[in-house]
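Dissemination and training. As part of the outreach component of the grant, students in the summer workshop were shown how a complex can be specified as a set of sequence lines and then modelled as a single object. The example used during the hands-on session is reproduced here so that future cohorts can follow it. Participants entered these lines:
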Amino acid sequence: MEKIVKNEARRDFLKVSGSAAGGLALAFYMPTARMAQAADGGSPNAWVKIAADNTVTIMVARSEMGQDVYTSMPMLVAEELEVDINAVQVEFAPPAEVYINSLLGGQLTGGSTAVRDGWEKLRKAGASARMMLVAAAADNWGVDASKCSAANGMVKGPGGKKATYGSVAAKASTMEVPKEVPLKPASQFKVVGKTKQKRLDTAMKVRGTAGFGIDTVVPGMKYAAVAMPPMMGGSLISYDDARAKKMPGVHSVVQYSRGVAVVANDYWTAKKAVATLDPQWDAGPNADLDMTSLWSKMEDASNGAGAVFRESGNADQGLAQADKMITAEYRLPFQSHAPLEPQNTTAHVTADKAVIITPTQFQQLVPHVVAGATGLKPEQVEVQTTFLGGGFGRRVEVDYCIDAAEISQAAGVPVKMVWSREDDMTHDSYRPAGIYKLTAGVDANGKLQALKFKSTSPSISSRLFPSIVKDGVDPFAVEGIDNFPYLADAGMNFSYVMHDTGVQVGYWRGVSHNLNAVALECFIDELAKNAGADPIQYRIDMLDMGSTKHAWSGLSAGVPVGARMKTVLEEVKKKSRFGKKMPAGKGQGVAVMEGYNTVIAIVAEVTVDSTMDVTVDKVTAVVDGGTLIHPDQALAQIQGSINFGQGAGMISEITVKNGTVQQDNFDGYRAVRINETPKVMDVHFVKSDGAPGGLGEPATAVIVPALANAIHAASGKRVRTFPALPENVAAG
Amino acid sequence: MKVSFKVNGKSETVEVSSDTPLLWVLRDTLGYTGTKFGCGKALCGACTVHLNGRAVRSCQTQIGSIAGSDVTTIEGLGGNHKVQRAWEALDVPQCGYCQPGQMMSASALLSTNKNPSDEDIDAFMSGNLCRCGTYPRIRAAIKAAAKMS
Ligand code: FES
Ligand code: FES
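and obtained this result:
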C-alpha cells in the first residue's frame, strides 16, 4: 500500500523565551517539577538521601558521559557531609528546579560547568545536611549542637554519645534548614583533591553492567528502527509497508514527524524491515547544497560587514601605520559528535503519561518537548537519565527523545528506538564550519601593533536559544576570541558574521574555542615566525596583564588571565624542552588558551614525512584548572580531550553533497585510534587554590593549533585549511 | 531457525532468522547487554566477543554460522580477569561504552601474546575505537595486565 504522508511541524517548542538570569545564563524559562519529598528515610535536602539502614545516596544532577560527574560531584557533597565517599550510592537526579545549573540557567550538562557550578553549591548542600543531622541528634540528647560533631557517617556528642546518620535522618529532614553554612578551608579537605580516589562507576563499567540508554529494557518493550530523510531539511513523501508488515516479528510500521519507523520484537527484525520500506523523500530546500557552493557563499558573506563584539583603539589606523601587514585566512570544517553509543531512547507513551528513559544532557527540556509532541502536559512526562555512551554536546539536543515518544504513541507500546551509526552520523547537529580572517599590523621588530579578526560561521544559539543572540552576536560563537589574551596598542577590532549554510549546527565539545582560538593561535605563530622570535617568548611578551572585563565570553574567566598564561607558557617551555634541536622532518609547536576559566599551554611534537603525512610523537600540556576535585580524572579529561581535538584537527571532517552528509560511519568519518594517539602524552597541572575551572573541553581546542604550528616547524607548511590531511598540509 | 551454542559456558538455544548478527542475539534475545553496538560495520570494535577463544566482531557474525560454538562476553570474563583488574586499577573507562569491547580484545591479545609491545598493542587494538580517548590508559592497562597472574 502506498501512503502519502505529510511532515508535521511539531518541533517548534524550542522557541521558548524569557529573560536571562544574568551573565550567560541561557535565556529560557521552563517550569520544572518541585523536588518530591523522598518517601522513606530522610532527605535533609535535594542532594542527599539517608535511609534508616545508614545507606547514603547522593543525587547527581548532571549527566555522566565520561567526564566523571558520577564521582567528582558526590566528592564535593561528601567532603562536608562527612561520609565515606566510597560507600555512598549515587543516583541520577530527575528534572527539578533545584538542580538547575546556575551557570547555564537550565538542568543541562555542558560548557564544562558541572564542577564549577557545584563547587560551592554541593559543598554547602553537604554541610547543610550534616548540620541538620547534628541538630537532630543534639535535640534527641538534649544538648547544644555546638557540643556535637560529625565524622564518617556518625554524630558524636558529649560523654561518648553516638548516633548513626541513619538513626537521625528522618528527624533531620524536619529540622530547620541552616541559614549560615560555613565551609571547611582547603587545608582541611579530606576528599577533594585526593589523588588516589577511584571513579565510583569503574567497577560497573569494567563488568559491562553500567546501564546505558541503549541497554534499557522495560516490560512489554518493542524495538524500533527508523528511516529518516537523508537530505538535510528533507521530508517523507511516501513509503510502502506491505513487505514489512508481512515479516514475522514486525509489530507495526508507523509514521512520525521526521520519518517512518518499524516496531518489532527485536532490533534486527526492525532494521531488516525498514530496508524494505522504499521511502520516497522530498529533498527540501538544500537539495543542491554541496561544499563548493557552501564555501563560496561563506566566502561572499565573509566579505561583508560583521557585528563588532570587541574593539579598542583604532585598528584600521593602526594597520595603516604599521611597518608591515600580515594576513591569513583559515578554514575549519564541519564535525560530527559521533559519540560511540548511537542515539536511542526508550519511551512509553500512554493516554495520560509518558516515561522517557534516555541518555540525555538536557533532562529538563525533555518533558516540554515530549509534551509538545504527544499532547500530554509536561508534568505527565517522567524522565529517567541513564549513563551516556559519550555526549560531546550531541545529547544537548532532544530530537531523538521526541522521535521515540512519537513512535511509542503511534505504535501503542513501549518502544526502544535505536539509531544505526548511519542514522546518527547523518542526522547530527554539526560543529560549525567557518572562515577566519586575521590581519595584523606589526612594527619593524615584528611586534603586534594592530589586529583585525573576523569570523564567519553559523550561529548555534540562534536555533536553540535565540534570546541570547543580541545585535548579531551569538555569545557561543565568540568564545575563545572575546577573551583575546594579548595587547595590540594601536587598536583591535573583532567581528562576527553570522552565516547560515543550510547545515544544522550544534554545540560540539569546546564549541567555538575550537574555531576562534584555533585560528588565532595559528596566526600568532605566523607573527612570531615573522618576528624571528621564540613563539613562547613572543606570546609572553605581549600578554595582557590588565583586568578589563570581557564583554561576551560568559563561560570564560571573564577577565584577562595574563599571569596564569605566563605561568603555563613558562612551564610548558621547560617540560617540553621547547626550542631543542629537532631532526629533519620533526618539529615542535605551541599554543595557549584560556577557556572555561582553565588556562592551558600545549607543545606538540610531530613528524611530517615526504607525503605530508603527519605522526604525532609527543604532546606536553601544562594546565591551570584551579583547584582539582578529582586529580586523576582531571588528567583523564585532558588526555581524552587531546585525542578528541587531534581527530578534528588532523583527520576528521563532515562534508555535504546534494544536501546529504557524505560520511556515514567510522570509515568515512575517521576518529583517532590507538595507533595514532600521541606516543607520549605528558600532562602537568599547576598547583592552584583558585576556584575550579572547566576541564572537559578546553584542551580539545588548544591541541589543534599546537599541532598545526608543529607541522609548520617540521615541514615549512602552514595549515590554513583543516583538517591537516596530507593534501591540506601540502597546499600550505 | 533454531541455533544452539554456549554463552559464557551456559547452553542457549535461540530461534531467530539465520542472518541475525550474534550482537543482537546476545543483546536482545539473551539479555547480555554488556556487548555494545557502535557501528554495525566492523569499524569500531564495541561489539567484540570471543568466539571459541578468538576475538570477533559480533555485529559481523551471523548466528546461523556459529552453531555449537563457545561465545564469551564481557559478563563471562568473570569480573576478576587480569584485564578487568588492570582496567580497574588504572580507572581506564570514561563514558565506558567502548570498554567491554576493548577488554575483550585486550584479553584475546594477552591470551596469545604474554608480553605485547607497543606495536603489538597498536596492531591488535586499532580496531577498537574510543571516542573519549582513553588510549593512554588502555595501553598502560594492557601492560599492567601482562604482568599480572
Ligand atoms: S558494532 Fe561491531 S565493530 Fe562496531
Ligand atoms: S570510554 Fe567512551 S568511548 Fe571509550
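Residues A 66, 340, 390; B 93-99, 130-132, 134 surround FE2/S2 (inorganic) cluster (ligand 2) (CB under 6 Å). Students were then asked to discuss how this feature might be tested experimentally.
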